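subagent[fold] <- orchestrator: predict structure for attached chain, return C-alpha cells only, no commentary.
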Amino acid sequence: MPKEFVKGVTVGEEAEENTVMIEERKFTEEETKNYIRVNEEDFIQGLIEAAGYTSEERQRIEIVREKRLFFAFSIRPLGSEEYEKCRKKHTKYVRNKQLGMKMPEDTDRIKYQSAIIFQATIEDDREKLWNNKKVWSSLEAKGYQIMSGLDVIEYTLKAGEKDMILTAIDKLSGYDENLEEVANLEDVAKN
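subagent[fold] -> orchestrator:
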C-alpha cells in the first residue's frame, strides 16, 4: 500500500532515543581540575566531533499538497556566520551623515528567508532543485522571472511552508523555543 501523505511540510522524524539526561553536581576547584585532566582527551575529541555538525547532521523536508508529494530535499544546520552573511546580503544600508557610517535601513525579509533555505539545503539537493537550469527554463516558460535559485524557492514554496522550513532549520541549528522567547524579551526591552 503506498504511503499516504499529509498536506504541508513534513520535517524529519523526532529521535527520542538520543535524549541524554544531565546530572548536576557540585565540585570543589581541585575536583574540577582533576576531572578536566582525566577527561581531557574526551573533551578534545568531543570538540573535534562537535565542529563537524554542519556537514554531518541532516533532516529531510517533504513538500506535500493534496496528499501528493511534490518534492523533497534535505537540510543541514547553519552556523552563526551563515545566518549573518544571508542577513547582510539582503539588508539595505544607508549612510548616516551625522555619525559618518552606514546604518541598516531595511532587510528584504522574503529574500532573506529564501537565502536561509537555499544555504541550508544540502549541496546535491540545491543543484537538483534550486539551481537546476531545466527548472529555471520551465518556470520562465510559465512567465516567472528566474535570476537565481532564490527565485525558484520563492515561486515554489508557499509562505507557510517557508516558515515551517525556517523553523526546522533554526531547530537543527540549535535554536529552540526557549532561546526564541529570550530574543523576543530582549527586543521588547530594547523598544
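orchestrator: received. Logging for downstream: The CA atoms of residues 81 and 87 lie 10 Å apart. The domain at 8-13+26-190 is CATH 3.30.2220.30 (rbstp2171).
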